[in-house]
Structure formats: structure tokens, C-alpha cells
Design brief:
It is built from eleven helices and five strands; from the N terminus they run αααααββααβααββαα. With 302 residues, the chain is mainly alpha-helical. Among the domains are: 79 residues, Winged helix-like DNA-binding domain superfamily/Winged helix DNA-binding domain (Arc Repressor Mutant, subunit A), CATH 1.10.10.10; 92 residues, Arc Repressor Mutant, subunit A, CATH 1.10.10.10. Keywords: Cell cycle, Cell division, Chromosome partition, Cytoplasm. One of its GO terms (biological process) is chromosome separation.
Amino acid sequence: MSDEERRDSLADQAAAWIPPWQRPAPTTPTEQPQPESEPVADLGSEGPLEGPPSSTISTVAEAKPQPAADLGMESPQKGPDGTKIPEQSGGAEAGEEDEAGVPTKRGRRRATAAPEPAPLLDDAELRGALEAILLVVDQPVSELTLAQVLEQPPERIGPMLDDIAAGYTAAGHGFELRRAAGGWRLYTRPEYASYVERFVLDGQSVRLTQAALETLAVVAYKQPVTRSRISAIRGVNCDGVLRTLVSRGLVEECGTEPDSGAFLYRTTTMFLEKLGLNSVDDLPPLAPFLPDDVEELADATR
């Protein structure tokens, strides 16, 4: 074969070459079309157009999807320097990072600056502020509350209050600062009680009756205690007296007894405040004033 015939043969082969994605799908022997039978239309899809075999082949080739048209195989976008551009989705959440490890700007929050701490007061100013607050309170105030109001460390409040109380005592003032009901409050000194009583009462007696004082003492030393137990210790019915103490805020209910379901009573914070006590543990001991068989007498009267 000459060189010219070889070049013509190669040109014919190149012209007749069909790309793989345009080639018809291979048919099995069972699927060969029969010349004498009419083609059966496939349900749900259009059958091949009638015509010579060449037209059928072209129809199949045209119907075959091109690789570039596959939505799931789209090539990533590239920048001008050939680097891959990361895809951005509309549903990106805060804190996501791209492929380079850099957090995205979407949803980033600026860190809020911490509030500046309050300046520390010197001892003289802290002492004056505490004295001013203690003069206007109508009930004992705790060290934590004072620290929050003055914006000072709580560990500075307790020692300063102790120093103020010691200064009042050493100076011999007519009032004193002491703990009461879990807090601090100014009180008049006992040696001046007669003058204060004369000024406040102005001839009007607001003292509790003897029965109320006895009932209050039983509740204070036996709390929590039921009404029947109080009546048994006193030997008389104390329903009316107990209601009076509750109405004055000196006694309150604190639940029920598990066995009988009777109401339990205890003293209130006002009781501690009126007596100037920090807790019921500061009550004077009762044993020296009671007979030895007081429990037996109480059980016998029930």
C-alpha cells in the first residue's frame, strides 16, 4: 500500500470515529428487532422513530445525556489563578469554616467587653456609706446585700461592720450596732431603754399579756410545736392567744406534723428582731428555771 493510500485510509477512519458518549448502547441477542414485527412501544417513554437503522441509532445517541449536563457532577468553579473557589450555601450557620480553615463572616458575633469593676472605696468612705445605710433600714440587712449595693467585695464588709460596732461600744454612744436575724442593725442600748420607752409609748401600753408571753416562750423553746402540745404544756387552751401572736407577726405556721397532720408553729424573724437576737440559739438557757420532771409533767397532762 502506498503512502497516499495509507493517508486516505487513516482520514476515513478518523472521519468515521464516533465518540464513546455518542455510541449506541449494545443490544443483546434477545433485543434484536424483528423485521416482520412492529416495535412495541415502551410504557412511560416514547419509542424510537421509524426509519432506517441509522435514524434509530442517532435517536439513541441524541437521547443519551451528556456528561457535562449532569447536575450532580458539576465541576467546581475556579479563580483566575486556577485555585478552587469554595462553595457558599445560603444555609451556612454561625461558626462554619471554609476549606482553608478560616471562619466565615456569616453569623460571627463580636465579643462584648466585660464591664469594668467598680473602684474600691477607701476605709473612711466605706465606713460612712455603711453607717448611712444602717440608719435608714427598717430591718436587719445582710453583709451580702450591703456588698451588692456598695459594689464592694463581701470580705471587706464583715470586718468593717465589726470595727464600727467596736467603735460605738468604746465611744459609749446611746446606740450600738449588732447582729440580729442574720443581718446587722442599729439598736438603742439597754441602759437607755426607759427613756426610749417613755418617748415611744407616750402613756399607751402595748405590752403582751402574761398568757401571750407564756405561749410565745413555749413556741420559742419548743419550736416547731403543735397547738395541742402548747396547750398541754401550759395546761389551758391557747387557741386565741396563738392567733394573736400570729396576727402580730411573732409566730407563724411552718408545715404539719407527719403523724397527726396538725399544724406546726415557730417564731418569726420579727421575733428575733424585737429581741435583738441573731438566731434562736442565742436564747438564754431554760434549764435553770424548770423543774427536773418537767417533761414527765407535760406528758401526764396530755
